[in-house]
């Protein structure tokens, strides 16, 4: 009978070695496949068949890059990191975060590949373990982090690596890039997910307030301290503390923070008892801490402590490829399950052109507003606020932009915050400081 080239050849019989490997892997809870050095999937365990095998298409005997990526070429030739290539070079395991096609649509998958050697030291097969990443979505989602652009994936891969450890994490990124959402995802992916996550906004706190908020105070410690109050460090016991805007911590408090991190102990204000803290630290800032250290505005020793694992969150302009995905997600959220909202291609193109100094928060606010005008459920260019006349530098949280802003900018506080590229929290605080609220 003539051979039909479109039908893949039946898989070759497995070697005894691979066969025993497969029966071993069948009892593993995590999805795993066995590959030959030529990218062919030789076998898959039960968990893989359950999670990834539901498309109805055969995968045994197929190339891994075709099944997982719908590519015609191995990942490294398609401009991606190929763990097989790397494992071959290293003669050891390699791990990478990829977006895979799955029966549920695109998903972030943490892929770990281990080479199997024969008695002569040659690689005969690879075992690939796949874990679906739950901290972010590669398709429109009703909540949490969404994204699939390379710059976002890089930050997500770092999150996946560090979350299970106890290392402090430093999130660096402009306002509205998702630092708080990332901090929540680190906590939720860590072994402390069952414990509390305590968010501390460092920017609004004076020195004395910072200390009593963080460490708590004894009864009578100062005027107004009518009762003993536990501090946030105590509230965060067995959980995570997120110090947002750590660059705003006053110098005198930085030394107390350092002592807390180094010794794991602290005292309530007005107290003598030494208390033991147990928390995981996540800090965030939009400020250049290294430059602040050079200027003597931030303690170097504290910087080294918190900077153990920095993650840079990309501004939206570096991940314009995610704008459609983010827009779909926010429109779902704006609709709140009531009616489907869509965006027309011109409006989407317009969103993709804008510079977004307020990043994802600004995009979200623009879409929330536009959704109120979209009577027929379709967002058009006319529903978007006017684009800024000149693409100026990213507005910073300095006083000058804000000084005139409340009287000149119409609209909601969230729109104003977005147009200034600062968080609503920061705006609220600054307006209050200026007596404009
Ligand atoms: N990857 C993302 N996917 C979906 N929503 C996001 C993402 N990143 C941020 N957001 C949304 O954008 C808004 C701003 O995010 P977030 O508050 O985490 O930013 P931030 O960097 O902490 O801002 P700031 O420094 O001003 O406090 C929130 O509404 C958040 O839900």
Uncertain spans: 394-411, 432-437
Which range does the strand content fall in? 15-25%
Shape: globular
Give the integer mean of the pLDDT values: 86
Query: How many strand elements?
Result: 18
The CATH superfamily of the largest domain is: P-loop containing nucleotide triphosphate hydrolases
CATH-derived architecture of the largest domain: 3-Layer(aba) Sandwich
Q: State Rg.
A: 26 Å
Largest sheet: 5 strands, antiparallel
- CATH C-level class of the largest domain is Alpha Beta
Helical fraction: 25-40%
How many distinct helices? Answer: 17
Quickly give the structural class. alpha/beta
What is the end-to-end distance?
84 Å
Bound ligands, named by name, code or SMILES: adenosine-5'-triphosphate
Biggest sheet, strands in spatial order?
2-1-5-4-3
What is the third-level CATH name, the topology of the largest domain? Rossmann fold
Oligomer: single chain
Question: Domains counted in the coordinates: how many?
Answer: 3
Structure description:
By secondary structure, this protein is α/β, with parallel strands linked by helices. The chain contains 17 helices and 18 strands. The chain has a 5-stranded antiparallel beta sheet with strand order 2-1-5-4-3, sandwiched between helices. A 5-stranded parallel beta sheet has the order 9-12-15-8-16. Strands 6-7 form a two-stranded parallel sheet. Helix 12 packs across helix 14 (359-373), helix 14 packs antiparallel against helix 16 (413-420) and helix 16 (413-420) crosses helix 17 (424-433). It is globular and about 80 Å long. The protein has 3 domains: 16-132, PAS domain (Beta-Lactamase, 2-Layer Sandwich), CATH 3.30.450.20; 163-312, Rossmann fold, CATH 3.40.50.300; 317-433, Helicase, Ruva Protein, domain 3 (Orthogonal Bundle), CATH 1.10.8.60. The model is unreliable at 394-411 and 432-437 (pLDDT under 50). This is PAS domain-containing protein. It comes from Massilia frigida.
């Amino acid at each position: 009978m003539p051979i039909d080239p479109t039908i893949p050849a039946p898989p070759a019989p497995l070697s005894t070695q691979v066969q025993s490997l497969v029966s071993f892997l069948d009892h593993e809870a995590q999805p795993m496949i066995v590959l030959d050095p030529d990218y062919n999937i030789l076998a898959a365990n039960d968990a893989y068949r359950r999670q990834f095998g539901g498309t109805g298409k055969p995968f045994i005997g197929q190339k891994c890059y075709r099944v997982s990526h719908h590519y015609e070429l191995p990942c490294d030739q398609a401009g991606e990191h190929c763990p097989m290539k790397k494992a071959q070079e290293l003669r050891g395991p390699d791990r990478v975060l990829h977006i895979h096609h799955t029966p549920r649509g695109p998903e972030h998958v943490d892929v770990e590949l281990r080479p199997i050697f024969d008695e002569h030291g040659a690689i005969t097969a690879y075992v690939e373990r796949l874990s679906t990443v739950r901290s972010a979505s590669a398709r429109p989602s009703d909540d949490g982090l969404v994204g699939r652009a390379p710059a976002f994936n890089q930050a997500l891969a770092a999150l996946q690596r560090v979350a299970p450890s106890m290392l402090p994490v430093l999130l660096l990124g402009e306002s509205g890039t998702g630092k708080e959402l990332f901090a929540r995802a680190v906590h939720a992916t860590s072994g402390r997910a069952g414990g509390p996550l305590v968010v501390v906004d460092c920017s609004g706190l004076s020195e004395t307030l910072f200390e009593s908020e963080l460490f708590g105070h004894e009864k009578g410690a100062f005027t107004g301290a009518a009762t003993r109050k536990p501090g946030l460090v105590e509230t965060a016991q067995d959980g995570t503390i997120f110090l947002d805007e750590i660059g705003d911590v006053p110098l005198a408090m930085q030394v107390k923070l350092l002592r807390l991190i180094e010794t794991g102990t602290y005292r309530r204000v007005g107290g003598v008892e030494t208390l033991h803290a147990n928390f995981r630290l996540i800090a965030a800032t939009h400020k250049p801490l290294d430059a602040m250290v050079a200027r003597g505005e931030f303690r170097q020793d504290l910087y080294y402590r918190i900077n153990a694992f920095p993650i840079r969150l990309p501004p939206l302009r570096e991940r314009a490829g995610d704008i459609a995905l983010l827009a779909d997600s926010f429109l779902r959220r704006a609709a709140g399950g009531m009616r489907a909202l869509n965006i027309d291609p011109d409006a989407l193109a317009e969103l993709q052109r804008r510079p977004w100094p307020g990043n994802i928060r600004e995009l979200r606010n623009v879409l929330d507003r536009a959704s109120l005008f979209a009577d027929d459920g379709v967002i058009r260019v006319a529903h978007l606020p006017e684009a800024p006349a000149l693409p100026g530098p990213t507005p910073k949280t300095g006083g000058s932009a804000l000084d005139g802003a409340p009287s000149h900018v119409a609209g909601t506080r969230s729109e104003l915050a977005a147009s200034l590229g600062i968080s609503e929290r920061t705006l609220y605080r600054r307006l209050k400081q200026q007596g404009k609220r």
